[in-house]
Write a structure and sequence with these properties.
By secondary structure, this protein is mostly helical. It folds into 2 domains: 196 residues, no CATH class; 117 residues, no CATH class. It is built from 11 helices and 3 strands; from the N terminus they run αααβββαααααααα. The termini are far apart.
């Protein structure tokens, strides 16, 4: 037999034996290529849009601009002097290229700076907001989010045999990306709490978030409709409010302490559901209160440790 046919036969036998392995490698390469293509395309579009929007968006007032850049430089942002700072409808890090803060927040901060208020605690909420967006920019959260989007989309679309229903696959893609987005937002809150300039300011922020949590719960129970609510909120709010009212009545009529605890737990779950339904991208206010308290405890421990080291060194 011709040597080349022997070689062909050996190669074919080898491929047949390792057919599954080669198929898996091919799928892996296809997955990597598709993920890279999707992520690169999405990131390029996001970056181009952000650059364009940075030129068309309104700049922050000079006093606010200077105040924020000092905070960013203090917290290690390398391009603190040049990163575009804009006024937006809401606060966000756009495309990983520039930071925009809500117009109402900017106007309030500009007014306080113009008054020359010497109480640093008055600026606690503004500093927290600026630090929150700094984390998104400094850690490249936009790029990471796009990478997760590209990876999950490529994987779930490729697994057609495992997930034949397109709606199910799209639901999973949205769920994974939403979960990661909420994680990023929670970590941005944690970054802001850990880097705000004083524990006093952090205590003020915690109290403000706790107040927001109480107001949200009160509004959910007694203010079923609001002109500012979106259509989905207007649709689901009456149902949740009615259920909370029924649980309140049930708790008032019950003498069993254990049953009241169960009812209270059910109410907390409903409130969390409402938070998610009305704002699916951010952690609920009670979660933010818990994160703030964790950061307060951690910073106090770090402060005591520094004092002990200073005392020992002296």
């Amino acid at each position: 037999m011709n040597n080349k046919y022997v070689a062909y036969s050996v190669l074919i036998a080898f491929l047949m034996i390792n057919q599954q392995s080669f198929c898996m490698q091919a799928k892996l390469l296809q997955y990597v290529a598709n993920s890279a293509l999707l992520s690169t395309g999405a990131y390029g579009m996001s970056k181009a849009t952000a650059v364009y929007k940075s030129y068309t968006s309104e700049d922050m007032p000079k006093g606010v601009d200077t105040w924020i850049r000092k905070i960013y430089a203090k917290n290690g942002l390398k391009n603190a002097d040049s990163v575009p700072l804009k006024i937006g409808k809401g606060s966000y890090c756009y495309g990983g290229h520039f930071i925009a803060l809500d117009r109402n927040k900017v106007d309030s901060l500009n007014w306080r700076l113009a008054l020359g208020n010497n109480s640093e605690n008055e600026f606690a909420l503004h500093e927290k907001l600026a630090l929150h967006e700094l984390k998104h920019l400094k850690c490249g959260d936009v790029g990471k989010g796009i990478l997760v989007f590209g990876s999950t989309t490529s994987l779930l679309l490729q697994l057609s045999s495992s997930f034949p229903v397109l709606a199910l696959k799209l639901g999973m893609i949205m769920g994974i990306n939403l979960t990661y987005r909420r994680y990023q937002e929670a970590e941005a809150e944690r970054f802001a709490y850990m880097n705000i300039s004083s524990l006093d300011k952090l205590e003020i922020i915690k109290q403000d978030i706790a107040r927001q949590a109480k107001n949200f719960e009160w509004d959910l129970r007694y203010c079923h409709f609001d002109v500012d609510n979106n259509w989905f909120e207007r649709m689901i709010r009456p149902t949740i409010s009615k259920k909370l009212y029924e649980l309140d009545q049930k708790a008032a009529e019950s003498d069993d302490q254990q049953e009241r605890l169960v009812i209270n737990l059910q109410q907390k779950k409903l409130i969390k559901l409402a938070h998610f339904a009305f704002d699916y991208q951010h952690p609920d206010t009670q979660r933010c209160v818990d994160i703030a308290q964790e950061c307060i405890d951690k910073r106090k421990v770090e402060l005591v440790s520094k004092l002990e080291k200073t005392t020992t060194g002296a």
